[in-house]
Amino acid sequence: MEAIVLIISAALYFIPFIIAIIRGIKNSMSVFFLNLFLGWTVIGFFVLIFYASLTNVKSNESVGQFINKKKKKKKKKRN
Prior knowledge:
Elements: H1 2-13, H2 15-23, H3 28-38, H4 42-54, H5 63-78
Helix pairs in contact: 2-3, 2-4, 3-4
């Protein structure tokens, strides 16, 4: 019983990585390591979910570049 709970918890924790694998993102290993080390933070978890689900599959864009691009778009919309 405890093993099943552990497996389900691990699967929920690594949802961003699972999304990246399913979508075939090129830098899915970076999503894995960022999820491993920053997934416990709520912000890191949601940023990785958005990155894994919104980035272009053929793009070589890093997570940092993705975040900066989204920030620039928000600033342009405000003006």
